[in-house]
Specification:
Layout lengths: L1 H17 L9 E2 L1 E7 L6 E4 L11 E3 L18 E4 L2 E9 L4 E4 L12 E4 L5 E6 L8 E7 L32 E7 L8 E3 L7 E7 L5 E8 L23 E8 L9 E9 L15 E7 L41 E10 L5 E7 L3 E3 L14 E2 L15 E2 L9 E8 L17 E2 L12 E6 L3 E13 L9 E2 L2 E7 L2
Length: 486
């Protein structure tokens, strides 16, 4: 009887006792884990060497040994750089392997050994897939390598090894971190960010108020201000070879800073490296040509005048009027040349025109605005309200009432000429050529504020004389100057 009683007690107590044995968590590795840096460039960290250290100085020498960066190989034009207590200077020129220049002089005195650094930051995207459920009020923790001291001062960190180095926290706050994803997860909007203490890592903790049962979770650390990438380690770093660091991602069933137990974890290698400066020099170019017009028909390039076989053929270097009749004929008293400009200047170009003088008999000087009384073919007045080298007027279809020499323009390339013959419904808008003898400034006749390829404008010449113009050979010289604006 007693044996049966003992057996009964044994069978009864065994299942009750099993209720007091705690369930062990099966910690495993998170899968498909990745950490992506939108900017994987190492920060730059050097120190001032012997040389310029005074306010106003713009060129500096760095030390050549014992620092994260011992040359200027990874300092690039336009980098924002801190030099001692002088913040946010812009690198202008890399002079050589240990010297560089900034755009504007420093304001504060330097001493040898002052830090010279350029920070690199960007968005960090952390993604992983959970193996085991994260219960309600569970955590994810991302541990970021950090230097032992000064790991949250806004300057890039460096140490002898990657084990002792890491990212500067750069005073990021919860608003800089977002967490999303995972099946069933409900992420709190406010993450807890803990700066590293001596020998520890920076930590970012995020909590879910509902259980996560599967799926991929993503944490994003934004770029403003952004974590600051480390500078190269001071021992054993080879430029062009990444320094590899281990970040840790882990999930917990509660607060890991208290009694929370780890569920899953994974170490992810993050390997910042020097960026590559791709540079090239493009030579400045400017080409300018003057081309003859020789067509015997049509109005192309003649400012509305119909050319015939009687029309003077220009050359690249002359307007040969020949013998001019005092009876104006459109075909014989008009001709033109084609101007063409190409340049890669980022400020574009301008073409100006100026004549050495009015047309003088045998090239004599024509002082001021004189005419046939002193053996000169004067510049036209265009009309009762006169044109000048600066002001255009409509010279009309028949210039006989206002004889002389003048010019107009016709565009091939839109918006390149300073005016056109038919602007504002005119028949023949014209100007005088600027007169160098009369101290007049050369005038812009075609221009563009950007690089151009084969921009073209016709210059149209018109002449008329009276029956009392003294016989003889008259000439002047017109100079066209093309200037690129680099």
């Amino acid at each position: 009887m007693s044996r049966k009683h003992l057996l009964f007690l044994f069978i009864l107590v065994l299942p009750v006792a099993s209720l007091f044995i705690p369930k062990q968590l099966d910690s495993a590795a998170l899968t498909s884990a990745s950490i992506t840096l939108s900017n994987s460039r190492l920060s730059y960290y050097a120190k001032i060497g012997v040389g310029n250290t005074n306010p106003g100085d713009t060129t500096f020498t760095i030390q050549g040994s014992s620092n994260a960066d011992n040359d200027t190989n990874h300092l690039f034009p336009n980098d924002t750089i801190n030099i001692g207590s002088n913040a946010n200077s812009t690198v202008g020129t890399i002079i050589d392997s240990t010297n560089f220049a900034i755009a504007t002089g420093i304001t504060n005195q330097l001493v040898v050994g002052d830090a010279v650094y350029a920070t690199q930051s960007g968005t960090v995207t952390i993604a992983f897939t959970i193996n085991n459920d994260i219960p309600a009020n569970g955590y994810i923790r991302v541990s970021i390598p950090s230097i032992a001291t000064n790991g949250n001062d806004g300057a890039p960190d460096t140490a002898a090894t990657t084990a002792a180095n890491g990212w500067d926290l750069h005073s990021i706050v919860a608003a800089d971190v977002t967490v999303s994803g995972g099946t069933g997860c409900s992420w709190n909007a406010t993450e807890v960010i803990t700066a590293a203490g001596a020998g520890t890592s920076h930590k970012i903790d995020a909590t879910t108020t509902a259980a996560c049962t599967a799926g991929t979770i993503t944490m994003t650390i934004d770029s403003s201000p952004g974590l600051i990438n480390p500078a190269p380690v001071t021992s054993g770093h080879t430029q062009g070879t990444a320094d590899a660091y281990q970040w840790t991602i882990a999930t917990y069933d509660g607060n890991p800073a208290a009694t929370g137990k780890k569920i899953d974890s994974v170490d992810v290698s993050v390997a910042p490296i020097e960026a590559v400066l791709v540079s090239a020099t493009i030579d400045e170019t400017l080409s300018f040509s003057i081309t003859a017009v020789t067509a015997d028909s049509g109005t192309t390039g003649s400012c509305g005048i119909t050319r015939t076989a009687s029309s003077p053929d220009s050359t690249a270097y002359s307007i040969p009027w020949g013998t001019i009749s005092s009876t104006y004929l459109a075909a014989t008293h008009n001709t033109s040349q084609l101007l063409q400009v190409s340049t890669n200047a980022d400020g574009g170009y301008a073409v100006t025109a100026i004549a050495n003088d009015q047309m003088g008999k045998d090239g004599i000087a024509c002082t001021g605005d004189v005419g046939e009384a002193v053996n000169c073919i004067k510049d036209t007045a265009c009309g009762a309200v006169v044109c000048t080298h600066e002001t255009l007027k409509d010279w009309g279809a028949d210039p006989a009432s206002y004889p002389g020499l003048g010019y107009s323009l016709e565009e091939v390339t839109a918006a390149e000429a300073s005016f056109e013959y038919d602007d504002t419904t005119a028949t023949y808008n014209a100007k005088q050529f600027a007169d160098e003898e009369d101290s007049q400034a050369a005038q812009t006749i075609m221009t563009n504020a950007a690089p151009v390829d084969a921009s073209q404008v016709y210059v149209c010449y018109r002449i008329d004389v009276t029956a009392t113009q003294p016989a003889g050979y008259y000439f002047n010289k017109v100079r066209y100057t093309a200037t690129a604006i680099f």
